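In keeping with the milestone schedule agreed at the kick-off meeting, the structural modelling team has produced records for the first pair of proteins. Each record is given below as a sequence line and a structure-token line. The laboratory manager (R.T.) confirmed that both were archived under the project's standard naming scheme.
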Amino acid sequence: MNDIRDYYKDNYNEDGRMTRNPLEFLRCKEIISRYLTAERMEIADIGGATGVFSYWLAQQGHEVHLLDYTPSHIEQAHENGVTLGIELATCVVGDARSVPHADAQFDLVLEMGALYHLQDAADRAQCLAEAHRTLKRGGVAICEGISRYANLFEALGENLIADPRFLPLLDENLTTGNHNPGDLPYFTTAFFHSPAQLRAELDSAGFVDVKLIAVEGFAAARDVSAVLTDERQRELLLKYLRQTESNTDLLGVTSHIIAVGRKE
């Protein structure tokens, strides 16, 4: 966990990640919006980094509690709040495996980054148990995972296979889901889910009506930046992403998978 914290503090600007990944941001907001209500909701954004989703939700009138493990993320989140003129309900450093929230407090819990930084299955189970504990009955958890095959597509798209140091990482990704870069200049310590594994973890945590949704879907296989700048092409892309987003034959292709589960 210290490696992850230091990576985000010293080597990676998380605050600009969604700007650099506009399709992921667009699709995540679209999927989350399906579970929002017109009434004011109480929402936990667990592992929410610098607050990109927290402030988007707060701007819509919801009461949002942001928690992240990395102190520099929370510092940046506070600065973002000042810039936006928005104050979140809470904005604190904390651990997704033990959150400082009450039982049955939230209508919606987001875990848009927490799960994919926990390599130990018991830690991921505890993270999901906390989401389940803090949800009201009927409340929904929305959890994002990185696809087991994401690095395979990135290796080809960015020619990472030309780096012999990357190949052992890729082999480990595909075999175990673990990503352990050490001192190499790649994404930090992480865990990459297969679709079936992500579903099984939410099932085991007690969630019902679990649904898997591909975020980038088939579009993960290429750079779609130019497509997104053209309104007609963008709408066509989104149409077919929605149409195929839960197709089990395609779920492994996406870079990110969202799992949605409800608390009975």
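The second protein of the pair:
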Amino acid sequence: MLAVFKRDLRAYFTSPIGYVFIAVFLLLANLFFYMYNILAQSSDLSSLFANLLFVLSFLIPILTMRLFSEELKAKTDQMLLTAPVRVGQIVLGKYLACLSVFIIALICTLTWPLIVTMYGTPALYTIVGNYAALFFAVMAFIAIGLFISSLTESQIVAAIITFAVYLGLYLMNSLTTVVDNNILRSIMEWVSVFSRYKHFALGVFSLADIVYYISLTVIFLFLTTRVLEKKRWA
């Protein structure tokens, strides 16, 4: 697993993908920070982080599209799948490499809490909640993108489908406000990644929401493993 992790993490920075992701993320993130906090002289980061998750819906597919699609197109997946390593370890290695790129970008934003103290006394639990919300949501997003990447050898197709899934989850969250049926609304809110994100963003740490994000991540990592297992024995 460690070899796969190092190989894929290195690949992000020997190609423009890792740099482009981090640069665009930080550009947009700092633009929102300037608008919502510097200009408004506010110490509340909730609005900023709410917008960041939507921005990441566009950016995460750039990271995940190459994970397996590139291997399938170059036929290097055959060498990878016949290597003396478990399929689950291959999936986990690639997943952690992708997640690490996001963590690097997120670390670059840790100056924000220091800067907003100039405009007031920000609630520590709200700041931690916002960072936790973004991290857990992106964990699930990357797992979904990884699974989709394992289904096609076209990186463009993988990126488009991944974005379409994220958009569907976002629209599902928006539609909960117009659905009259209480049961259907409850189901949509339970499934929606974005509605659970709001709880964290308000500083509310719910064990059910944490379990949901982790469960969603594990499910899609498992599905990816099953897809690759099928290819391995085909």
